[in-house]
User: What shape does this take?
Amino acid sequence: MPTCPAPVRPVDDAAAAELTTLAAKLLADHSSATSPELLAALPGACAQLSDAVRHALRPVDTADGLFVLRGLHLDDTELGPTPGHWSSVGDAGALWDVILLLVSTLTGTPIAWDGQQGGRFVHNIVPSPGHESEQTGSSSDVLLTPHTEDAFHPGRAHLLLLCCMRNHDNIATTAASIRRTALTQADVEQLKRPVVPILPDDAYEDAQQFAGRPAPVPTLFDTSEGLTMRFDPAYTPLEEAEVEWHEAYRRLEGELGRVSVAVSLEPGDVLVVDNDIVVHGRVPFTARYDGTDRWLKRASVRVEGRPTRPLAERDEHGYGQAALTAWAV
Assistant: This one.
């Protein structure tokens, strides 16, 4: 698997200072990165940012389906120890929550989930004791299987942003683009059929208890922008599928493995992933739980009006989960 071939969009010191200074002012004005008033102020604040910052955050524009924003400076010593669970983060790294919210707002509308990390718009991804073998962001010992973020839900993000706080061990995020694969047209046609559902992952306990019947969804679909994907094998009941469809799905898995890249983020890097084109995961690692483990912050972004989803998704129940928006749109 190639290491860190992701397109890099550098920001110079002046652009980095713009983002950092504006984030610090918003945090000082509103006292908390989770303040509803701060969230409401984001569009107006972003209007103050220069064209250089906006250009760096233009839409994903290569078949890779992702890029790394690099040039923001983070002081590891000011962060404090990596927390052992997202709920114990408190205000640690709050300035970076706001930086990530500004970056998110420049790319679309930040969204959150009422059933995940307390409805926060910025999540903290840290290894947690007792979760080592799960297929969630709090795991460590296992390969986090490549997947579409929140694939079970029709309101899932169009863009996923991962900001690196700490990564002393150079633990890689994996990524694979459907636009880099070489599937046969017959396999594409099979996987455009809605045959089996995608179930809620272990981060959504309430959704897993939802009484409604899971609806089959397509894995691939054609759009005006090209082929897009909805994929989460760890939470897809593949055993329910007919043989021909299942074989096509396994060939897709193989192709995604073939084109997968490993992106090792540096502190201050922001990885921007097109969630309709790219599946992401993480290589296994051994967590120490000594305050030095890998720590990412995550934000989800919806791009209003983007024509990359089948119209039939509008009829899905979403397992009772509601997506929250940072402001009224």
